[in-house]
Amino acid sequence: NDADYLTLQNLQARARGFVIQALGNALSGLVIPPSNLSELINGYFTQGGDDSGGGTNCLMSLLKTYLIAWAKWRATTSEHGLKQVKTLGEIGDPSAELALAGMGQTDEKELGPYPVRDYVTPLIINDKLYPSDVFDHLIEEFNGHPTWEPKMLYYWLVNLYRDFLLSPSDP
Q1: 47: Cβ contacts below 8 Å, ≥ 6 apart
Q2: In whole angstroms, what separates CA 74 from the centre of its chain?
Q3: Which pick of 24, 30, 81, 140 has the fewest CB atoms within 10 Å?
Q4: Cβ–Cβ under 8 Å, residues 64 and 94
Q5: d(C-alpha 12, C-alpha 9), whole Å
Q6: Percent of the chain beyond pLDDT 90?
């Protein structure tokens, strides 16, 4: 059943968090968890798993779209003596990597596009707009997008409100 499958995914995330934290301690290193504001708002993280980091999470106030743009920049620059990092194409689409191998799990398949979610986040939290007003902004912002029709924008917005307002506790 779906609840059992989600529980097994969260168990994997917790094991990964524990191992990474143990390695950080053993190597006298600092673990920087990958959780970010976009995932926090959607409840798309596992407590004791990918949010592990000994209380240090410098990414938690950053939206995923910003982090993706930063990673693309870092892949093309070696300024200030920094070595270039892998490109996103080499890394792949953002994914919790918890589903069974071969299932093609990506964050956006489960949540909808980050540009849409990250665009509406300040409208909901900062501007405190009603859902109908947020939808109007979405239509205006993404009008003419080749694949994001109004029906899909509406679907993603409904899911975002569901995730944001009714997010169940972590199994």
Answers
A1: 170
A2: 19
A3: 81
A4: yes
A5: 5
A6: 16
Contact 62, 35 (CB under 8 A): no
DSSP 6: H
Q: What residue has token string 């209380």? A: 55
- In this structure, which amino acid lies at residue 143? N
Retrieve residue 118's tokens: 């990250």
**pTM here?**
0.71
Contact 53, 31 (CB under 8 A): yes
- Residue 160 phi, psi (nearest 5): -60, -45
What is the distance between the alpha carbons of residues 134 and 160, in angstroms, rounded to a whole number? 11
Q: Which residues of 73-85 are buried (b: 16+ CB within 10 A; e: fewer)?
A: ebeeeeeeeeeee
The identity of residue 7, as a single letter, is T
Token pair of 62, please?
């950053």
pLDDT of 78 over the 70 cut: no
CA distance 62 to 145: 25
